[in-house]
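Example 5.3 — Putative cinnamyl-alcohol dehydrogenase
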Amino acid sequence: MVIMTPETEHPVKAFGWAARDSSGHLSPFNFSRRHEIVGEVTEVGSKVKKVKVGDKVGVGGVVGACHDCRKCDNDLEIYCPKSIFTYGDIYHDGTVTYGGYSDSMVASKRYIIHFPDNMPLAAGAPLLCAGITVYSPLKYFGLAEPGMHIGIVGFGGLGHMGVKFAKAFGAKVTD
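Solution (predicted structure tokens):
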């Protein structure tokens, strides 16, 4: 699917469908985002040690950035003026990013998530948006501790992921 050097492309195997995929457009190109993208690595760059050919991987909303500005230096690439989004953006070589509708995708190693070999690809897609949306605040606010009591309001796309993560962290969950 996705990975590593701007010189290589990887076939897309699956993608998630999020509510935002059918709500408006953030680009001049008329297509849906499909930003929860998973696939298998077909080629890696010479400096890549994180994954190898055949690994299952995923990519969220960003595939590249300048890595040379203050935003990038502070791990805030999403705000980099030269960030390249997974969908509706333009790579440095002028080609368009088409999100999960792509036959293949190129992404910097920094934005690749490596999945375990025994994980079905389709199971990884929801982790790349809904999953990180709830995982990040649970970790950031110190709620990922065993024995914590956590209440999850709502059991939709985000709520059910929050319950799964909280239980995996050993929390007592009220849903």
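Remark. Residues 131-174 form one domain.
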